[in-house]
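DATA CLASS: polypeptide
GOAL: derive structure tokens

***
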Amino acid sequence: MCFSPHASFAAAAVLTLIGVVTLGKPRVKGEWLLAALPLIFAAQQLTEGILWLILRGHLAFAALLSGLIYLHFTGYFRHRHNESAAGDNRCIP
């Protein structure tokens, strides 16, 4: 949203409520991803609100935590674990 952390957190709350309601609506398996879109946008707005607080200096620990979460989702830790378990240095996609 790029307005304030309050606006981002409010948007995340509204989108989460919409996402929970829409997850109960799909009748076909292929519609689940479409129904989950509001939850994906809610996660983005929550992340943006946390970023606002980090940039304002209110959450120094959150900067470290968000970096670790980012590395987790990009697969860095999974890649390092697989590399050490396999005993070789092949790149695992």
Remarks:
- The mean pLDDT is 79.
- The radius of gyration is 18 Å.
